[in-house]
Amino acid sequence: MENQSSIEEFIFLGFSNHPDLQILFFLVFLAIYTITLVGNMLILTLTRNDPGLQTPMYFFLSNLSFLDICYTSTTVPVMMANFFRPRKTISRAGCIAQLFFLITCAGTECVLLAVMAYDRYVAICRPLHYTTIMSKRVCVQLAGFSWLCGLTNSLAHTLLASSLTICKSNQLSHFFCDVPLLLKLSCSETYVNEIVLHLASALIGLSPCLFTVVSYSHIICTILKIKSAKGRSKAFSTCASHLIVVVIFYGTANLNYNRSSSGYSLDIDTLVSSLFCIVTPMLNPLIYSLRNKEVKAALLRMARNAGNPQLQTAVQPLLENFQ
C-alpha cells in the first residue's frame, strides 16, 4: 500500500489518441491562446483608459477579461508543452496548484456573470436609480464578492483534494486536473469531497445560473413593454453581448460536467472540455468588442491617440465589417 500511495506524478491522456497530430494541435491552440490573450488584454486596456467605458458594465467586463486570461493560462501552457513530450505529465503539486487556480477562476466567473446580469437588470428595469444603486463602491463590493466566492470554493476543494491518497492509477483521462478525476483515482474515503462537490455545484454553479435566468426574465418583460421597436432594440442591445456569453458559458459547462458516462469517448470528452476551458475565454472579448458600438468607438479612439495612421486605417474597415 505504501508504494501505491506514493504517486507523485500524473499522466494526461487527453489528445494521446492522435500522436501524428501533435504539431497541428499545438499550432491550433497556440493561435487560440494568442487571440485570447490579445483580445482580453485589449478589453482590459480599453476599460481602464477610455473615458467612454468608465461604467459599471465595463468595470465588470474588465474583471471577466482578467478572469479569462487567468483561466486559460492555467491549462493551455502546460497542455502545449506536453505536445512535445513523449509522456504528458504533471507533478502532484502542479496538479493541485492547477486545480486551485482553475476552480477559483471558474467559480468566480459563475458568480460574476450573475452580478453582470443584475447590473443589466438595474440598467433596464430601474434606469432612474441606476447610478445610485450601482455606485462605484457597490460595484467593487460585488466584484470582490465574486472573487471571494470563487476563492473560498477553491480552497475547500483544493485542501480536500490534497489530502486524498491516490493509488488506483496515475493516468488522468483529460488534459488538465479536475476534482472528479482525482476522486476516481483515490483509494481513500471521498464522501466529504463528494458532499462538498455537490454543495458547491448548487451554491456556485446552479444558484448564479438561476439568478441570471430570473434577472433576464424581468429584463425581457420590461423590454417587451417598450412601445417603439427602436426602443426595444436599443434596450436589448445593451444586454445582448452578456446574454450570449452566459449561454455559451453555461452551455459548455453543462456539456462538460453533466454528460452521460455511457458510450464514453476520450476524444469527445477532450473536445467538449476544450470548448469550455479554452474556446469560451477566446470568444468573450470577441463578442463584447465586435458587436459593441461603444467598444468599437473606443478602439478607434485608441488608434487615433496612438498617432499611427496605418493602425487607424487598418482598424476602421475591420470594425465596419461587424456593424
From TrEMBL:
Residues 39-288 form the G-protein coupled receptors family 1 profile domain. It comes from the Eukaryota. It is found in: Cell membrane. The keyword Disulfide bond does not apply. Pfam families: 7tm_4. InterPro entries: GPCR_Rhodpsn, GPCR_Rhodpsn_7TM, Olfact_rcpt, Olfactory_GPCR. The chain crosses the membrane at residues 23-46, 58-84, 96-118, 138-156, 195-214, 235-251, 271-290. It is a multi-pass membrane protein. One of its GO terms (cellular component) is plasma membrane. GO terms for molecular function: G protein-coupled receptor activity; olfactory receptor activity. Gene3D superfamilies: Rhodopsin 7-helix transmembrane proteins (1.20.1070.10). Belongs to the G-protein coupled receptor 1 family. This is Olfactory receptor. It comes from Sphenodon punctatus (Tuatara).
